[in-house]
Amino acid sequence: MAYAANYRRVGEAVLAIVATGAMFYFGNGLNPLWPLMWIAPLPVLVFALRSKWWATAMVTVAAMLLGNLNMWSYLTKTLGMPVSVWVGIFLAASVVFAAGVLLFRVLVLRGAVRSGLVALPAVWVTSEYVRNLTTPHGSAGSLAYSQLRFLPFLQLASITGPWGMSFVLLLFPAAIAIGLHLRQTSPKRALQVAGAGIGVVAAVLVFGAVRLAMPMTETARVGLITSDEKANAGVTDPGADTKRLFRDYAREAQKLAANGAQAIVMPEKLGVTLEGKTAETDAVLQSVASQTGATVVAGVVHVHAPVKYNEARIYAPGSDVLRYDKQHMLPPFESNLKPGTTLTLLPRPHQKWGVAICKDMDFASPARLYGEAGTGLILVPGWDFVVDGSWHGHIAVMRGVEDGFSIARAAKNGFLTVSDDRGRIVGEVSSSSAPFATLLVDVPTAHSSTVYQVLGDWFAWVAIALLAFVLLQVVRLRTRPQG
To answer: Is this prediction's pTM over 0.85?
Structure first.
């Protein structure tokens, strides 16, 4: 009998590891199947309420490491990071998740069900927020990004940013696990807890449906251009080579402008420009702007010796060349570039447009600052790594939902993507779809105010406060016997 019981416990542990690990593997990462994330933690949460604490910790860490193998190839091969980087990032994340599950376990088993319900979400959102503040990758690892295609749920970002989305995403399986645990001993309480979790999700989705149904006003036609053939050659050398590349892009820009494009976005780091020697290259795209009335944005590496900038140069009719310097660099590839510190708002009648570059959209700022300025459209040159084109390109979509603007992002080795302030993809094509891939769409340009734009990361601080509360609950209940 003892052997049978041991085999059964081992079987339950393996089942929990495989089930949760598989759902994290396919439900998160570069190409997530978003419905899976709503139940991915459930097997380990159910296991936690039936097992010893040490078994819970081991199973949770193992499940999370298994699930995060979906990022192994991306980090070690695409980005060329050593294996130790993957181990460090995801072992730390797995331990944090396990700590949340253990808090959930001890509180539920000691009768503090409401505290147990919020324990895992509070731990995880706190860790996401701390990581956002302390690493060079911002919010890019948030579970919220697995839900970008679930539009009614995505609207929660306009109130809480990604933090509220991650919280609700983990609250739901915690409520179901508690309901299953209490269904025989306390069916009424089980129904109350499960009902509370389902009720929170329902309220969020109703809000999202209403927000999505609100009408849009004011549109502009935007055009995007990129060429992966040019990207494979790297960053073009200064002088004649960059001028020749600008001419190639200018021909495509003329076609888009002839079809009504009011803004035209080209990728990041097309070529190198030198301070004091930009007149010839600038003249190529400035002539497009002057002749057509379109605003043209092109990314370059601008050298003002000894400093280099990842810069967007902006050509508007009747205006001197404007510039925006990228604020968030991708280490180690851009460690030699100096970050910018200011916004660039474009002169538009009755509208405000802004400019950002690629990785800037992984962070709350400068996006939130653009939102506070009333911006309705952000033009974003980018450069991705092919396999992460959809994932990284779509991270920018959440900034638009949070801060009330549409986004036009043109990336080499990725996608040309236009999204509105509700996170809807208005148009998208692969950058590899033609020698010069182009996209021309009408997109809303009216700014919409949001709670997140006004209050910022308030929900992250709510999660931190809830974590402090549940930790105090553990201390208060420490003399109670465990179940």
So the answer is: yes
